[in-house]
Specification:
alpha+beta, Tetrahydropterin Synthase, Chain A, 3 domains, four-stranded antiparallel sheet, 17% strand
Length: 340
């Protein structure tokens, strides 16, 4: 066999093999799990190649390549899993004209790959720009203090804005998180001083509140003690009054018994007149005992009182004479013996 013919035959079969290999590569496409591939036929969208083995018509069907920010250029497979974009710090001006730097993370997922490719040129770049503008719009309506303390509200508003804007792109924004909010150094120093002053004020307020509660508790205790003391004094007064009443009743009973006996011992006598006379005598005795008594006023009934006293004296003397009469006579004196 001619060597030239052999070379030509080798070249021919090699060319045929290369052509068949290229056709096989363009015909058979394996798509990974959770990814899809858009197939265009003669420059027009034809179908969506799902995960697994897919057969394409060579030289007619062609996968659509995408050129998105932060992705490999000419990417033909579209990832359907949830992805995230880490945004660098962006300058934002608050409502009180303070420039702060904010960085955030956006979590998103492609729900319709056809819209994600044909509705926008750069999907990732569009989401980044929407996040920056939405963040400036939301934080521009808030003061610096609110931006630092209301991150959950900022995240919710940003997610709502991005979700509404990216819905026509076939994208679902699942979450937006603001990571850091960095104010300028002078503002940060001022805020630290303000926080220190606020803490001192709260400490003073808490101390004053504690003193007030202590004073209230002390006053309540004193009030309760005073009420208890008054209750005790009341009970003591009641018992003393009851004792005095019992004593007066006993004295009255004793005087009644004495008057009864006096009335029985003095036939025809008046016990009331006797009692009044005794009260007069006791009063005069008390008046004469004082050192400052210079003049003694005698009552009008002094004569009658004295006559009563005389009557009592006569009665007592008669009683004494009667007793002397009833006594036996004394024995005669014995004669005195003379000493021997």
């Amino acid at each position: 066999m001619d060597p030239i013919a052999s070379v030509l035959a080798f070249l021919f079969f090699g060319f045929i093999g290369i052509v068949l290999l290229v056709i096989a590569v363009k015909t058979i496409r394996i798509v990974p799990q959770a990814t899809v591939m858009l197939v265009e036929r003669l420059g027009k969208f034809d179908k969506v190649a799902s995960s697994g083995l897919n057969i394409l018509v060579p030289f007619l069907d062609k996968p659509r390549a995408v050129y998105w920010t932060n992705t490999r250029p000419g990417l033909v497979s579209i990832d359907l899993r949830e992805q995230y974009i880490d945004l660098p710090p962006q300058p934002v001006i608050t409502r009180d004209n303070v420039t702060i730097h904010v960085d955030s993370v956006v979590y998103w997922q492609i729900t319709d790959p056809i819209k994600a490719v044909y509705e926008i040129n750069d999907l990732v770049g569009g989401i980044v720009q929407l996040t920056i503008t939405g963040m400036r719009a939301v934080m521009g309506e808030m003061d610096l203090d609110h931006t630092l303390s209301q991150r959950d509200q900022i995240n919710a508003k940003l997610r709502l804005i991005l979700d509404e804007a990216t819905d026509k792109w076939g994208v679902k924004v699942t979450r937006v998180d603001v990571k850091n909010i960095n104010p300028p150094d002078d503002v940060r120093i001022t805020m630290e001083k303000q926080m220190t002053a606020e803490r001192n004020r709260r400490a003073l307020v808490l101390q004053a509140e504690g003193d007030r509660q202590a004073a209230i508790t002390r006053a309540e205790g004193e009030k309760q003690a005073a009420v208890t003391r008054a209750e005790g004094e009341k009970q003591s007064a009641i018992l003393a009054a009851e004792g005095a009443a019992q004593a007066r009743l006993r004295n009255a009973e004793a005087e009644s018994e004495a008057l009864t006996r006096i009335a029985q011992s003095i036939p025809g006598g008046d016990p009331g007149h006797y009692l009044i006379t005794m009260r007069y005598i006791e009063s005069l005795r008390d008046m004469t005992r004082t050192n400052n008594s210079k003049v003694i006023f005698m009552p009008v009934e002094t004569s009658s009182m004295l006559s009563s006293v005389g009557a009592i004296k006569e009665m007592l003397s008669q009683t004494g004479e009667t007793d002397e009469k009833d006594k036996p006579p004394p024995a005669p004196p014995r004669p005195r013996e003379l000493p021997r």
